[in-house]
Structures are given as structure tokens and as C-alpha cells.
Amino acid sequence: MKRELAPYAVLPPCPVTVVCTYDSLDKPNGLAVSWTGIAVSDPPHIMIAVRPGRYSHAALCERKEFTMNIPSESQMREADYFGITSGRKTDKFADLGLTPVPAKHVHAPTIAEFPLSLECRVVSQQEIGTHSIFIAEILAVHADESILDEKNNIDVAAMRPISYDHAKFLYVGQGPVLGKAFSVGKELKK
Questions:
Q1: Domain locations in the chain as residue ranges
Q2: In this structure, are strands 14-15 and 109-111 parallel, antiparallel, or unpaired?
Q3: Which CATH class is domain 14-188?
Q4: Closest Cα partner for 169 from 50, 71, 84?
């Protein structure tokens, strides 16, 4: 039997990403963002939600460009640091020994050491409750060769991305492959 709970922000699991911009002085900065997801598949767009009080918010509003960088399990601490430290007070890239690499299609840095980076241009912004929602077109995808299969598709098992459990404030790794999408349900067709 299901129990009704008070409404809260729940849609497990939430991907762990680091959204990067240049600040007003062109200093590279990143912000951990888990309120994100695919908005449209063709043309590809993503959505991120950021609180206006966050240091990166001003850069997102002014520049309308960012990169989304997806860490692997081994980079959990670095991703967390991007979320618990303010770029107002420190240079997060220098603190972590990470390499900011200028993106090719937008004015924003990527994180060289993270296995996947998306270059994004904001096409829409809306204020909803405590957050600004940015919808952005994905202009380019950069994947480390170590996470690509023989057909140049991203191999999630090789990448080992992490997810955020908002209810318990935990990072969760990927589990085993359970089945092939658009296939396993065919067993139930009559």
C-alpha cells in the first residue's frame, strides 16, 4: 500500500553535473547542479534550475552560455566541492587542481578531467518559485574516448556517472544493466 507524503522535490535519481561559466572577470567557475534533465531531444535541449543567490546565476543570466560537465564516481568529491564552495570567495578550479578548457562553441570552460562535457546556449529563462529555470540547446558534446563504445556511443557503464539522492543527501553510483530499453517490455505484449 502506498503512503501519501507531503509534496517535495523528488524524482530519483538526479544526475550530478557541474555547470561551468566565466564570471564577470572571465574567471572560470563551476556550480554543482542536480536539478536538470533533457527538455527536448530534437534539437537537443537540456534544462537546469539554479537559485538566484548562487554566484553562477549572474553569469548564466548575462552570458546565456554554459557547459555541463558530468563527473564519474571517482570525481564525486570534486563535484561536491563545486556545490559547497562559492566562486565569490575562491577559484574552485585552482583549489581542485582541475583544468578549465575553453569550449569551442560557447564562451564557457569545460572541465578537462571530467569524462563528458556539453556546450550549451540558453534559449529560454523562467523564474519559478525559488529557482530560475534555464532551457539551453546542446551545441556540442565532448566525450573522453574511454567512455565510448565501438560505435562512438557513450557507454554509461564505462563512464560510471553518479546520481544525487535528495531525500537522504547521498551520492549513488550506477548499478548493473537490467535490460534493453524498448525491448524488455515486448515480453508482456499479447
A1: 14-188
A2: unpaired
A3: mainly beta
A4: 84
